[in-house]
Automatic annotation (TrEMBL):
This is Putative ATPase/DNA-binding CsgD family transcriptional regulator. Signal peptide: none annotated. GO terms for molecular function: DNA binding. It comes from the Bacteria. Pfam families: GerE, HTH_77. Residues 765-785 are annotated as: Disordered.
Length: 884
């Protein structure tokens, strides 16, 4: 049957419940919540599992199981559900909204098991899914209804007598007994006395290897005391289960009872080694623990899942609750929970060497134990002496950094930090740096980088150089906000320290940051030389997170150098490395790089497919992957959707200069030159100050398009300056754009041979690089074809460097001097005339039909050519000469 692999394995046969199964199957439907409600032990979970198995083939995207038994009230249920269903949740969008967006196109059945202790957290998740996902059906199990509009509550009844008999006899090893047999008569007495509750019957049947069926029935004849504090007026079904639990517990031997109550501190899914370690630390020797564990399994008090490489164990919720009561009754709760904390602290700290050699293996090891680690953390941080809890928080911080658990990690680390307030030391330093580590991928806007700097300084003061290096590396990332030079210096200094200390991760992480800074500054050969070896080292150790970022920037560097095929391979590697992390930022960075490269190749459908996993969860305004909206906007421009390009670029909360350049281009094409010019002013200012020639040249090229209608000569100057910058910094693809822009200008000024040569050279470069995207289009083929001779073929035979040199020669001698009044273009002369008359920049812009920023640019050029500093000096110079 398809899609069953999304459900947990059925560890025993399913008996009876035919009418119930049919009724539940008929009630489950897309867009509806069906809640199987009833007391503990009535069979809600098994009925839901059987229903999901039977209904799985109805759903294209399968039937999925989410077990909430181990979660605590106040937890992030939406992220647990999203993680199980493989939905990425961005931080900038409300979680329920993002989950609904991620599921809105799916057709699937989702089972939410054991909801009763989390109703306040489950309800908004259910409402969001029902409201936004018409193809999703929800099936919940709970002791009480979820309480949302439209919920169908289906009360799970006791088993029919026939089904109850079949279940008891099957589990006791006596299936097929005839109605007249004495065995069946005794079995019926058991069923009657246990109110035909499945869990109670399972517990009773587990004793069939020790007692005869008649003895089991006789033992259940007299009422037993209820659970501590339980009223004798409780419903008979609840009293029956309590009595069967008590009866089963009383029949255990001493070792089984001791182990039973101590296992109550474990969250579901622990291994035998952990059970042995916990119990053996008390009065049980290791040789007695495994037989006792086997006895509990045989008696159905512990469930063993042997389907994986290592057997793991759990108790049903009601059984665990009973065991906790016995633990409290024995006065062993605090001691056992302390031992549980010590066990998982030792496990986490013993695994820490893997962080330096194989983070994938470390993540698998710690991730498998995370429910118990989280429970141990909560206990440890609340103890009078919180040191063990604080150490455990540090020991698992990388898991929160790597996986979609960052918000929970930040909360726990903040608690750990507060428990050490006023007590600086090596542990407090490690907590500060751990907080920065988790914030780096979860919420870098919460002063996490300041925590890195503080932690590094404290670590140095208390003799922990390894923690100090990691803090300095994280602080270097934060230094980007102070400028690229500050970030480069911090990263370079920390990389050298790490190399000297043999700290490979910090050295390579800093190398990745240095390579990224080289990309920002369009220094692609340097970026590639640093990033390539750093990425390989990171991947070798399973440092997926940082490696994904490095691979993505390496792909960008290769793409802008004209190696699009290699760039696409690198971006695909980044996506593959990011996928297991289920991290929006890392996966979004990789997919964004891949989408842009596919767009540059003209593979727009593939680009859209790369964008889709992230686009599916953009449930509101604002971007959550830096540069994501710019990528979407650029692809929209390439496909001619100017309005979408404008809308997406404007959506970016804190627009980067790259985004502003794309937006300026889109605004120009949409007919808003004033807004476009204003943005180009900002881009050019940032690019000049930060040393970003690609952005500077891009702004010049767009400025040329703006001034072209009024001043073709100025447009030609700007395009040639853009080409000069692009060629000097080996911006291969951008050089192609410049050649085509100059070809259009040559056609405009009736130089068809130049148009043909430059068009041929540009087409040759496109063929060599695979660069297919264009904004705006190249000269029409028929215009190039009208030229005489073999000019196009001569251009197509040129290398890119030869074509750039030809473009400079074809420009010919300048008709105007480079300085003085004679150097002014006609438009510049008009601007001077109006400025001397006293008109403001907005008034000049209105008079000459240009943007204010264009006026500002013209005046800047005029000041430079005339060697004046401001309007006052300009008016004085014009008065001496007479206005031009």
């Amino acid at each position: 049957m398809p899609n069953v692999h999304h459900l947990p394995p059925e560890l025993s046969s399913f008996v009876g419940r035919g009418p119930e199964f049919a009724a539940v199957g008929a009630a489950v439907a897309p867009g509806r919540l069906v809640t199987l409600a009833g007391p503990g032990g009535c069979g809600k979970t098994r009925l839901a599992m059987r229903a999901a198995v039977g209904l799985a083939d109805r759903w294209v995207d399968g039937a999925w199981w989410v077990d909430l038994a181990g979660e605590v009230p106040g937890g992030d249920v939406v992220r647990i559900v999203a993680g199980r269903l493989g939905v990425l949740l961005p931080d900038s969008v409300p979680s329920e909204v993002a989950l609904a967006h991620g599921l809105r196109d799916r057709t699937m059945l989702v089972v939410l098991d054991n909801c009763e202790h989390l109703l306040a957290e489950v309800a908004p998740v259910v409402e969001a899914v029902l409201g936004g996902c018409p193809g999703v059906a929800l099936l919940a199990t709970s002791r009480a209804p979820v309480g949302v509009a439209g919920e169908v509550v289906w009360r799970v009844p006791p088993m029919s007598l026939a089904d109850a008999l079949d279940l008891f006899l099957d589990r006791s090893g006596h299936p097929g007994v005839t109605d007249a047999a004495e065995e069946r008569v005794s079995a019926r007495r058991v069923c009657d006395r246990l109110d035909r509750l499945p869990l109670a019957l399972e517990l009773a049947a587990a004793w069939a290897g020790t007692l005869a069926t008649a003895q089991i029935a006789d033992s259940l004849a007299d009422p037993f005391p209820l659970l501590s504090g339980g009223p004798r007026t409780a419903p008979f079904r609840q009293r029956t289960l309590a009595e069967s639990m008590r009866w089963s517990h009383d029949l255990l031997d001493a070792d089984e009872r001791a182990l039973f109550r101590r296992l109550a501190v474990f969250e579901p899914g622990y291994a035998a080694t952990e059970a042995v370690a916990l119990a053996a630390a008390t009065d049980l020797t290791p040789g007695r623990v495994l037989p006792a564990l086997r006895g509990l399994i045989d008696k159905s008090l512990v469930i063993a899942d042997t389907t994986g490489p290592v057997a793991r164990y759990r108790m049903l919720g009601v059984v665990r609750a009973y065991a906790r009561g016995r633990l409290d009754e024995a006065g062993e709760t605090d001691d056992t929970r302390d031992r549980h904390l010590g066990l998982f602290l030792a496990l986490a700290e013993a695994a820490s060497p893997l962080l330096a050699t194989d983070k994938d293996a470390w993540r698998a090891r710690i991730g498998a134990e995370y429910p118990n680690i989280r429970a141990a953390l909560a206990w440890g941080l609340a103890r009078p002496d919180p040191e063990a809890g604080r150490r455990l928080a540090v020991a698992v911080a990388w898991l929160w950094h790597l996986e979609n658990r960052g918000h929970e990690g930040l909360a726990l680390l903040s608690t750990a930090l507060s428990r050490g307030d006023g007590h600086p030391g090596a542990l407090q330093a490690r907590i500060l740096v751990s907080l920065a580590l988790v914030a780096d991928t979860t919420d870098p806007h919460i002063d996490g980088y300041a925590a890195a700097d503080d932690g590094a300084a404290m670590a140095e003061a208390f003799g922990d150089p390894a923690t100090a290096r990691l803090g300095h590396a994280l602080g270097a990332v934060g230094a980007i906000a102070r400028g690229l030079d500050a970030a480069r210096d911090a990263a370079d200094r920390t990389a050298r320290e790490a190399h000297a200390a043999g700290d490979a991760f910090v050295a390579e992480a800093c190398a990745m940051l240095l390579g990224m800074i080289h990309v920002f500054r369009d220094e692609y050969p340097q970026a590639r030389a640093i990033l390539a070896p750093a990425v390989e080292g990171l991947l070798t150790r399973g440092d997926r997170g940082v490696a994904v970022t490095g691979l993505s920037w390496l792909a960008v560097a290769c793409a802008r150098s004209g190696e699009l095929d290699h760039a696409a391979e690198l971006a695909e590697r980044a996506v593959a490395a990011a996928s297991p992390l289920h991290d929006v930022h890392r996966l979004g960075t990789a997919l964004g790089a891949l989408a842009e490269i596919r767009g540059l190749q003209g593979r727009f459908a593939d680009a859209a497919a790369a964008l889709d996993p992230i686009e599916r969860i953009t449930g509101g305004p604002g971007s959550f992957v830096p540069g994501w909206d710019r990528t979407v906007g650029q692809l929209a421009l390439w496909t001619g959707d100017v309005d979408r390009a404008v809308a997406r670029c404007r959506r970016e909360a804190a627009p980067l200069p790259d985004t502003q350049l794309v937006l300026a281009t889109a605004l120009r094409l949409s007919g808003d030159p004033v807004a476009a010019g204003r943005l180009l002013d900002r881009v050019e200012e940032v690019a000049r100050a930060a040393g970003m020639p690609r952005l500077h040249a891009g702004a010049l090229a767009q400025r040329a398009e703006l001034v072209l209608p009024s001043d073709p000569a100025a447009a030609l100057d700007l395009q040639h300056e853009a080409l000069r910058l692009r060629a000097a910094h080996q911006l291969t693809l951008d050089c192609v754009d410049s050649l085509e822009a100059l070809a259009r200008l040559a056609l405009r000024r009736s130089a068809p041979e130049v148009t043909a040569v430059l068009s041929g050279a540009a087409d040759r470069a496109r063929s060599d690089t695979g660069y297919a995207a264009r904004t705006p289009p190249a000269p029409a083929p028929e215009d190039v074809a009208r030229t005489a001779g073999d000019a196009y073929d001569r251009g197509a035979a040129m290398t890119l460097a030869e074509a750039v040199a030809y473009a400079a020669r074809a420009r010919g001698p300048r008709q105007r001097p480079v300085s003085g009044w004679g150097s002014l273009t006609p438009t510049e002369a008009s601007v001077v005339e109006l400025a001397v008359e006293g008109l403001s920049n907005p008034e000049i812009a209105a008079r000459l039909f240009m943007s204010r920023s264009t006026v500002k640019t013209h005046l800047a050029h005029v000041y430079e050519k005339l060697q004046v500093a401001n309007r006052t000096e300009l008016a004085r110079a014009a008065g001496h000469r007479g206005t031009p």
